[in-house]
Amino acid sequence: MEIISCCGTVCSDCDSFPNECAGCPASSGKPYWTKHVGIETCPIYACCVNENEYDHCGSCSKLPCSKYSDLVDPSMTDEEHEQSIQDRVNVLNKL
């Protein structure tokens, strides 16, 4: 079964799923990587689900907002990061 986070990340495709991380839907926006960057909850999840009560960011007129561009995986190049944003938006547009 495919698990998709509110940001459009396909959690079930991640190498850390399900052992290290059950995904944002199951962890309430506290995926494995938050501890590595010193935050409690993913800011995209906090905005989307906790603050705006959306099921996913595809319900927001600001998609993709600055939270997407500000939240950068340091292992990615700028081009890879931009592509990951587009990939997630494409996933959300299909929901």
Structure description:
- With 95 residues, this protein is mainly alpha-helical.
- The longest helix has 16 residues, at 78-93.
- The model has no long low-confidence stretch (mean pLDDT 96).
- The chain has helices at 24-27, 34-37, 43-51, 66-70, 78-93.
- The chain is globular and about 35 Å long.
- It has one domain (1-75).
- The chain has five helices and no strands.
Compute the CA-based radius of gyration: 12 Å
Cα separation of the termini = 15 Å
Strand coverage percent? under 5%
Computed structural class: mainly alpha
Number of helices: 5
**Extended strand count:** 0
In short:
The protein is mostly helical and 95 residues long. It is 40% helix and 0% strand.
Structural key phrases:
single chain; mainly alpha; 95 residues
